[in-house]
Give the backbone structure.
Amino acid sequence: MQQKIALVTGGSRGLGRNAALKLAARGVAVVLTYQANQAAAEAVVAEIDAAGGQAAAIQLDVALSSSFPAFSEQLRQLLQQRWQRQQFDYLLNNAGIGIHAGFAETTEAQFDQLLNIQFKGVFFLTQALLPLLADGGRILNVSSGLTRFALPGYAAYAAMKGAVEVLSHYLAKELGPRGIAVNVLAPGAIETDFGGGAVRDNAQLNQFIASQTALGRVGLPDDIGAVVALLLSDEAGWINAQRIEASGGMFL
C-alpha cells in the first residue's frame, strides 16, 4: 500500500507541530511549512526522522498569495525527488495568527492581516495545490470554537474562521467528484504559544476556561493533534463537509 503524504501548513510550532508528529506516528509522511523559524521546523523534521518517520520542511508565508505558484512547484519537485510521487494525499490548512482587539478598536491593518492569512491564504493556497492533491485525498481546515461562541476581542479573527467554514462546504461539494473529502476542525482554547500564550500562561484565564469546559480542564496540543490524525485516517473517510469541534465541551 502506498504511503500517504500530508502537507501541514504552520507545522513548526503549536498545533501544527503536534499534528505533524501525530500523523508521522501513524506512518504518514509529512511536509510541513514554516514562515520564518527554519530551526524550529528542522527540529520537527529531525524528531520525526529520529522516530523512524519521513518529513521535510519548506518555507511559506501564507499571507503572500503571489508566492503560491512557486511554492507549488517547489512542493512538486520535493514529492518527485523524495517520494517519487506526483501528488500528496492530505492538506491541513493550519497556519495562522491570533489578534485580540475589540471590534471598536480593530484597525484596517489588523483586519487585512487576518484576512490574508486566515482566509485569503486558505482559499488561494488550496486552489494552487489542487493539481497536486490526489483524487480520494482529504482537506482539513482549522477553524475555531469562536465561530460557535463569542468572546469579546475576537470579532475579526472569528469572522475569518467563519468564512473558512462556509468555504469548506463549497470545497466539499465541488471536489466531491474527485473523491476529496473536506472537513473543518474547530479547536477550543488550547495551551500553546498562540496569541502570545495567554491561555497557557495566564492562570486566571486558564482557570476560567477550565471552569466553563465540561471535562474540567483546558485543552492540550495532544488533544488536537490526535483528532487531526483521526480525521485524516482511512476510518474517517466517510466524514465529509462537517465541522468537528474539539473543545472538551466549552460553553455548553
Notes: The chain is about 45% helix and 15% strand. The longest strand covers residues 133-142. Helices lie at 14-25, 38-50, 68-83, 108-129, 155-175, 198-201, 203-211, 221-231.
